[in-house]
Amino acid sequence: MSQSARRNAKVPGSEMTAMLIIFVSTNAFLTYPRYISLSGYEAAWMEPVFSGVLTLILFFLVEQLLRRYFKNLDIVEVSKEVFGRFGAILIALVFSLYFLCSTAAVMREFTENVVSTVLPSTPILIVGAVFMFAVGYIVYGGIEGICRTAFIFLPILLVGLVAVCLMTVNWWRPYMLLPLWGTGPEQVLRGSLQYSSIFANVLLLTIIYPHVHDTSKMRRIGFVSIVVSTLLLVGLMLTYHMVFPAAETGKTSFALYRLARMIHLGPFFQRLESIFIFLWVTAATVRMAVTLWGCSYLLGKAFGWPTYRPAVPALVLLSFSLGMWPENWIQVINFDGTYLLRWGWIVVFAIPIAVLSIGAMVRSMRGGGRLHGGQRGRRRMQRV
Amino acid sequence: MDMSFTGALKRLLTVDDSMLDDQFSLADDDPSEPADTYGETPQPETVNFTTAENKTDTSKKPVSMRTFLRRATKEYEEAVEKAHVGQDDEIECDIDEMKRRLERFFHLPQNKDIVIREFRVGVDTKAPWRGMAVFVDGLSDKNVINSAILEPLMILTHVSEENPRRTLEYVVEKLLPGNQSQIVNKWSEAVANILTGSTVLFLDRCNGALVIETKGWEHRSVSTPQTENVVRGSQDAFTENFRANTGLVRARLRTEHLVTEIHSVGNLARTDVAIMYIHGVTNPKLVREVRRRISQIDVDFVLDSGMLEQFIEDRPSMLIPQVMATERPDRVAASLAEGYVALFVGNSTYCLIVPVVLWSLVHSSEDSNIRFLPGTFMRLIRWIALLTALLLPGLYVAVTNYHAEMLPTDLMLAIAGSREQVPFPVVVEVLLMEFAIELIREAGIRIPTVIGPTIGIVGALIIGQSAVQAGIVSPLLVIVVATTALASFTVPNYELSMGIRIMRFAFLIAGAVLGFYGIAILFVVYVVRLTMLKSFGVPILSPIAPSSGASRDVLLRGPLWSMNKRPSFLYPLRSWRQKPMSRPWSAPTRKSTGKEGGET
């Protein structure tokens, strides 16, 4: 492929939608079900709904700001406009750090899951190294490769998640969803806000916006991705809580595995949790590739690198090291719950909206110039 | 007796190390020895190929890659130039000079393949008009030469002295009845035409040559396909005749818009390469790209389509082919009508179709000849077979090593029971059996036809019975390996099948080392690799990823009457290949489109 062709590479809407769905839905395999179960008990399934609605509103708001004021610009470029180069570097570093920590946490959680469930005798370093190699390889493919991979694997994720839910039908006890409001509406709403950071659509939108093939479809992409991923999470949580009592769901950190273990459809179709490894691996790989790509892309943008790819091996190694730093799984879960999940909304929602809002105000004050990305001569386009 | 005794004694007492001397060594090049000592007649003109730049560079001094490439390119270009010294010149008027040139170009008289037939034009001509016909023995049709060139010129022609028109144009117009003839003025054109089987006529005092089509070498006639057999469909395949192959396609696709461009590739020996496409359907950018890649191939010799394929593919190191090779003219015709480009290479029995997408490698030309439900069923079978051939051994190893809990207890006990006598780990067992299957497969191709049936007996005995009875492998594994082998034979494309054969071992190792987890990771990595792969600018996973609104003829087989558009990833100039309502006579169709009661 020629360089010019690569520079202009754009991601079609369907692939972008698939990537966003997988990105959010992967939380079903991680600690998100545990934390919202603790927060909402029987009403835990409502939390993804509220978080999803909130995300949808913010997504439309951010999309409107980008469309109106910063067409074809990403968050780093907007930050440069508003805060200057150093301000942009600072903001890019904050996002990159968030993505790096997120990658490291997911890597550790995921490899711990694998080791504790299917490969108990295999050293975690080997499992993690293989996983990170795969993630690094995907990131090398760029956002186009990541989204295309996501599009291919999305049907597997959808079928797998629905299958897990439906194949446990003989264990469903709908009365375990009562009382309806669980720990109470106030607690449920608070939990929805606290753990809404799993919907990183808003932050991702501000990064990938210039790479969408047809930005006029961005609203549709956002709507479909948020609704579908919300439905998947709600379905999973409903099933989880119909199979296990609420008090127990807050103690397990791998909800999907527990559900898969419960599958028993006669003597032949039983203990199918190993089959779902394909589901976890594909989804987790795509998710981590997105965060790692975001990290390297933002760094490249902030520091004016012509390409982010040389940074990928270093970032892979860094996130692997960070992930392996905590002594045990409990520390990782606590770190994830205390910082990334609980306060992640600041990075995922608050900062991007603040930057864009300030940028919009600055633009309005300067005379309402709605600058188009293509008009900015000094803007350097990275290879994506 | 006495002599033999003396000889034996001598051998006993003396050291004779002549047995260590080589009879002949290519490496020990004696510069004093002449390059060609054949016969008494010296070469008319010898081109010296043993100059310093053509000798193998034995110096150990490291050079930069740029220097190395520059030097190698220069050496190659100089060698190519030397091989064609004088061929860029215009053809002379003097027939003796022409003959001397020919002797030099074709290394006569050592080279016995080239025939120079000298003659005089006309009967009872007072002023002789000398001529010569040059052709390659074995490539040209001698009957045509005798009856259409020599006989008319030597016996049936009367050249009067008064007629001043002793020109090639006059010969073409009046004297020679050949159906294809062309006047050339350069030696390079004349030499190239002689080598393709045409007869080149040189006449005294004519500064040019007349190329007469007389190609007629022995070749196999059109026969049935060897690797792409079908039940419903035509039963002819390409053969070793370049023009017969293009003709087979043209006979099916009878449109004046079908264009066949002929190029030649190779500096030492030229090979014809035909680019075939439909003007007005195929995207001109695609044709230009094909032309560009072919014209930039700078090699001495391209023998077959398999070699050309590797020179024009985007990533020849990948196991998945990025060019489709087919031996079926009907498949080529169908592809051309879709907007693809076809490439014919010399005397190759395979035609190349570009670009290619992964899905079409699993299609068969039979698919469109049968109704869409059986067609869909067959495609599903092929996809399952492809995944089986790729993953089954790896999955078996992963399940038995790491995930035994997912098996029902009875099945698990049966597997454990069957493996009780086997001394090897399961991965070694699988590798042994896969190796045996690969041996049988390879031997099946190489084995002489007369003893062909032996391979079946030997294979069945070794794998089916003896290995199990000896406790080397378990009976269940025999089923797994046999199913895998059967599945891999189901893949219609030979190159894809070869790729799967190799990739299977990678998945086997991944399954043995990390179970399902390893297989899943490898699968993801390979899919990512495929998403980045392109064939002539078209992503190989099109039209699924990237998704485009193509017809339903991708994973499954859609109804023929509903596949109205050509593949969008080809960006054809005519996207509709049929009317949206392609069965207007049908009442259900008319009803569904709301035209009931309309025009009849």
In words, what does this structure look like?
With 384 residues, chain A is mainly alpha-helical. Chain A has one domain: Up-down Bundle (Amino acid/polyamine transporter I), CATH 1.20.1740.10. Helices cover 71% and strands 1% of the residues of chain A. Chain A contains 15 helices and 2 strands. A two-stranded antiparallel sheet of chain A has the order 1-2. Chain A is globular and about 70 Å long. The two termini of chain A are 13 Å apart. The termini of chain B are far apart. Chain B is built from 17 helices and 12 strands. With 600 residues, chain B is an alpha+beta fold. Among the domains of chain B are: 95-212, no CATH class; 242-356, no CATH class; 372-539, no CATH class. In chain B, 42% of the residues lie in helices and 10% in strands. In chain B, the strands form 3 sheets. Chain B has a 5-stranded antiparallel sheet, sandwiched between helices. In chain B, strands 6-7-9-10-8 form a 5-stranded antiparallel sheet, with helices on both faces. A two-stranded antiparallel ribbon of chain B has the order 11-12. In chain B, helix 11 (372-401) crosses helix 16. Chain B has helices at residues 2-13, 65-83, 95-105, 142-154, 168-175, 187-195, 242-252, 284-295, 305-312, 329-338, 372-401, 409-418, 426-446, 452-469, 475-490, 494-531, 587-592, and strands at 114-120, 130-136, 181-184, 199-203, 209-212, 258-265, 271-278, 324-326, 341-345, 351-354, 534-535, 538-539. Classes of the chains: A mainly alpha (384), B alpha+beta (600). At the A-B interface, helix 6, helix 7 and helix 13 of A face helix 16 of B.
